[in-house]
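Slide 14.
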Amino acid sequence: MFIRLTQAMSTAGRSIAIQIDGLVAGYGGATILRDIQLSVEHRQIVAVLGRNGAGKTTLLRCLSGLVPARAGSIHLDGTDITGWSPSRRVAGGVAHVPEGRRMIAGLTVRENLLVGGYVTPRKQRAARFAEVLELFPVMRDWLGRDASNLSGGQQQLVAAARALMSPPKVLLLDEPLTGLAPSVAYDVLDAITLFRDQGRAVLLVEQNAHMALEIADTAHVLDRGHITEQTREAGRVQVEEIERGYLGLQR
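Slide 15: predicted structure.
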C-alpha cells in the first residue's frame, strides 16, 4: 500500500527530478515491482517504506540501472533514461548508496571518496573533493584510515559523501539507518536533509518509518510490489497510524 504525506512546505520553484511510470521489474521468472507510479521533485525527500521483501531495494536497483525494467519508463529531468546503462545514469546525475554501506576494502576514506568521483572530469575532481569535505568536515580526520575499519555510522557518512562526488541530481538511499545507534542515525538524517536543501531530489528507502518520516516530505508504503495512493492534508505526520495500519508494526 502507499500513503502520501505532504508536510507544510512550499513547492514553489520545484520541478520533477525523476518520474517513474508503470514500472515493472523482477528477477528471473519472478515479478517484484508491478506498475509503479512515483515521482520525486528537486528539493524533496520521498520515503518508500515497507517490510523486508516488499521490493524496496529492487526499486532503487531498477532506478540506478542494475535491474532492467520489463515495462514502464523512468525519466530524469524529462529525459527517458529507461534504457541507459548504470554508468551513464551516474554521469547523468543518479547516485545510488546501497544497503550495507559497502566500503571498498583496503582503500582509505580518501580513496573511497575519489572512486565515487570517477565520472567527474579530472580537472574538477579536486574541487569537488574539497566541496564534499566542506559538507562533512569530520571526515578530514578519517582520510588516511582504512574505510572498512570505521564504525557503522562513520561508514554510512562516507558512503553518502562518496555518492556526492558524482555530483548527483537524484540521490537513492537504501536503508541508510540500518544498524545505527539513534544518535548516529540522526547525524545521517541531518546529512540527508542537507542534500535536499541543496536542491537535490532524495529517494529514501527505509524500514525505520518513525525516523524516516521525521524528514520526509512525501512517504509511500510499498507492499508486495504495489503502490496505492491516498492523500493526506499537509501537516504533522501521524507516525503511529502508518506503522500500525500500513506496516503492521507494534510500538
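Speaker note: The longest strand covers residues 16-27.
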